[in-house]
Structure formats: C-alpha cells, structure tokens
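Let's practice the habit of predicting before peeking. Look at the sequence and jot down your guess about where helices and strands might fall. Then scroll down.
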Amino acid sequence: MKRRILTNAIQKRLSIVGFTVLSILLASVSLYGQPPAGERLVFYLDSNSHLHALFAPNGSGWTDVDITVTDQIPVATGALTSFVDDYDDVWVDYLEDNNQICELVITGISSSGFTGGEFVPTSVSGAPLPASASQLTGLVDSNDNYIHVFYEGTNANVYEFYHSGPGYPPPTITFDDPTSFAKAPVAAYGSGLTSYIDLTSSIHYMHVNYLGTNQNVYELLWDGGTKWYSNDLTSLAGAPVAASGSALTGFIDSTTQYMHVFYLGTNQNVYELVYSGGAIWISYDVTSTAGAPVAASGSALTGFNKLVDVGDWGVHVMYLGTNGHVYALRIAATFSYFDATAASGGGLPPELVHVRIRQLSSARFPA
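Done guessing? Here is the structure:
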C-alpha cells in the first residue's frame, strides 16, 4: 500500500476535536455531561496516514487498532469527521490519498477491525472532487436519518453529498452545490467547516459555516425544502474578522435554541457569534471576557452545550493554548475558563503518548 512522506509540520498537527472529548471522558465526565452507556470511539490519523480507532466499552480500558491495516481501507491524507446516526451506526469520512472522500459505516469494532462497510461517494459519476486542503463536516437529520457531509471543492464552493441510512452501500447518493444555490461567496482555501441542525422545530434547518476569502464567517442555511440561503455572520454581528486558517465550531443550544459559532480572531482570541432569534447576530470576545489565555496559532476548536442546572452546565468551547494545554471556555451566567489538561492530570492518555497525531474525531455507540 502506498505510504506518504509527511513534513514535520503536518506530523505535529493536532486537532483537539477528538482529544478534548477523550480527555473529558477519561478525566472529568462532568464536563461532557452524563454519557450514555456504550462503546466510546476516538479516530485519529497517524504519521503514516493510517486511520486508527481507539475504543473503550463503558467502564473498561482503551484499545488501539490500525483499521487501515486490519480492514485494508485507503490511506488518508487529511480531513476527518465522524458522527452517529439514529440507528446507532458510526459514520467516519476522511480524505484518501487519491483525493477522494472515503466513507465508513461502523456497526461494531474490535482489535481485528470493524464490521460495516466502506464506500467512496465522490467516485460517483458527476461528483465534484474535493480540494486537496478541504476540511470535512457531517451530520445526520433525525427526521429521515439522512447522512449529510460537506466539503470544499476545487473551485472553492462548499459542496454536499447526502444519502439515506441504514443500508450500505447507499442506493442513491445525491450531490448539491449549496454555494451556487445560495449565490454565496466562495470559501477561503482550506477553510474550516462546521455544521449543525436545528431539531427544535418541525422544519429541520441545516446550518453550515465556513470562512470566505475576506476572512468573514459565512453561513449556508437550508430551509428544509428546496432552497439554500447565505448569511455573512461577521457583518451581521459587527464582529472582527477571523485569523487566516482559523478553525470553526458551531452548535445549537437545545435549552435556549440559541445558535453559537466560534472562531479565532487575528489576536488569537476565541470569538463567539450568537443568534438568539429575529435577525440579529451578536459577537463576544470570549477570551477577553473570561480573562483566559490566548489560543496557539492554528489551534483547533470544538464545543458542546450542557443542560442548565446539571453539574458544570452551560456552553463550552475548547482550544489549545500556547503552552500546549487544552483550555475550556465556559459561558453560563458568567464567562469563565479552566485548564482541562491540568484537571486531567496534565498529559496525554498512555495510548497516545508515542503517537504523532495529525487529526482526531470522536463518536460513541449508544446503548
């Protein structure tokens, strides 16, 4: 199998999307919320471009398996995303070494590999190819259990493919060009991507965020019917522009139905864009307000919400500090922060100490 030689910069790249969840699961369950019983999974790409899965049934230790080797799947080159559908299947999408997107559906996993299927959606006739630096984001619409994955094409448009589940390979894969449909600006090369779905109403609105070439945060909004719309969230909120190459993370607060999008500013502070209804977006400099350390250049971002009055409740966003620690910003009645690395004992889990990690993502088999 072809092996790819990586530069030191790529070998040392760290995405905290999965590491944050892993740290919280191992060290402080209260930060993550009460997890459901079931197997925990963390996916990562190693310096040989192999896809690994760290998995742990509830209450037991972690096992690492190189599923590129055990299941003979294509070698990876970059972006990675994972999520769980309504049938408790885990979906993993990544860029493979021939510039296609490889998609896995995982129904079970062991040291011998995974059970499920593997498919290359972008090999379908007429599918736009992803850009070599494309990021990925994906979600499932629980209204119909459709799988949606978004990526940046070679023309800098944000594309989507979607298909039904369960059943694999999917009988039909559909490609959309939300950027063209919404008459939206193109994305910056290698733009961060984040997506979430509003399940609080009968119409399941999909939201996809990306950075434009002017470093503004844009939103592609699907109305549950046949139309895509575009919004310039930075301009609507009167917010500072994002740093070049900033990561993005976003989600909806199921308690308040507020939408939250986070990015890094040019001063390496974490900024928040908040939508609480109507036509108004508001911006906050969360780092300054919380008195928190600045983020490391190129830090990844990940976030989640914890229900009100349940332990450490509120909106949380995680980032990597200049000292290599993972910090958590908490937005509740006030703005605050804490050092998640220090709270977890100050180091990586033993299974990851000697691994040169490139990207991570995480999921869980619900009970």
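How did you do? The chain has eight helices and 24 strands.
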